[in-house]
Amino acid sequence: MRVDSEMTCEPPKDINANNVQHWSRHTKELKQSQVSKALKFVRHDCIQYLGKAFETMPELAGMKSDYAQAKHIFVCLPLNTATEFEFFGRVLTKVAFGKDYNSSEYMIFKHKDGTFECNCQAWQTKAHKGEIVNEGANCSHILALYYCFKMRKFNNEHGAEERHMKPDVE
Question: What does pTM read for this prediction?
Answer without folding.
Answer: 0.70
